[in-house]
Amino acid sequence: MNDIVQLFWDLLADLVRIQVLKQFAALGLAFGVWLVLRRWWKLEGRRWPGEARWPWIALWKPLANETLLWLCFVVVGAWLVATTGVGDLARFVARFYGLCLFTRFALVVLKCYLPVLAVRTADLRVIRPLLTLVGVFALYAQFADFHALWSIKLVHWGNESLTFGGLVLLVFGTYFVTVGASLPALVAAEVLRRSLELSGPAHKASALVIRYSLAAFGLVVVLAYVGVNPTLLAAVGGGLSVGLGFGLKEVFSNFISGVWLLLEGAVRPGDVLLLESGNGEDPCEVLELGMRATTLWRDRDNVELVVPNQTFFTQSMVTYSGIRDRHRRGQVLIGAAYRHPPQTVIALLEATASTIPRVLAKPAPKGLLLRYDDSAITYAIRYWIENPMDGVGVASEVGIAVWNAFQREGIEIPFPQRVVHQADGASG
Q1: Spans of the chain, pLDDT less than 50
Q2: 269-320 maps to which CATH number?
Q3: 0.70 exceeded by pTM
Q4: Where are the domains of the chain?
């Protein structure tokens, strides 16, 4: 630790040298010139030649002022080298700011092909922190021995030791490979989608698989660089496998099920599902398909249901696709007395169902005689609706309309009846 403190004191002594202070002053002058030019030219607010012809100009125009600042740094650095022969700091600032500016241009391009939110998140959580870390160490290397700082030993165990560089790589490397794997995964998945014509769910699944694979590979590389024994990594991997097999079995099963659901596209946001465990009258709409569970919305009581992904592989389900035909058939059962002709009852049922606004005209409602029961003939009126989530409400409307029609036409809906015959000679 004392070695680190001494190195940073040496760095501070280098920073206050007259040659370095002159370069800082020149960079400050360049920044001031940029402020004046920025207010004078107003690059971002004016209309550029060819802007209407080339749309990419409008995309990159917000970076015009930053490009102007980089040019000011480049000019000042070249002027310092030409006049004094000392301009390493100014040239470093120009080169590093040029790198930062290049990443900004690259992000603008990525926003045209990838989700804007994903690119912005990667910029804030990965790219900017990474550039800051690289800039700090690169600036240190301009004035001091970077290798000496990187090689300082902090912790010792057995024949091994953890250096300052190893600690930095272990902490920040772990962060960047786990958090930063999402953007290259999205890029790779987009390339696969365009080349293999993958569907939306398969594209999402491939992005997740690539992301976790890159993160796992990056962690192995980081740990190996730090000096962790590969045998130890294998032992830890074996222990994790045992843990997944016992304690985390359900979590791992749901994760694999989620990947397969995305690849197959059997369940998609917007689909309406009827699970085997339901009563068939409570359809649920898929809100979000996650890696562990799927979120469903049930209209009956306006609640969100979180269903483990493996449920879709252990239970049968009925799907009303959000992409294909979502029409659903509904049915209402009703009994009529034996004295009414079946043709009359069926015609009345079909005519009544056709008057309901949410019942589709094509296919037309269909009345059926189902069976002869003890007290009545049981009929069914079957119809089609457009939105499967309306099944319960439409069934209620049809049932009320049928009851009113039966009352109007004098068709009896009988109560259960039983005929009792008294034996001869029985006393009253």
Answers
A1: 278
A2: 2.30.30
A3: no
A4: 1-44+52-150, 269-320, 328-409
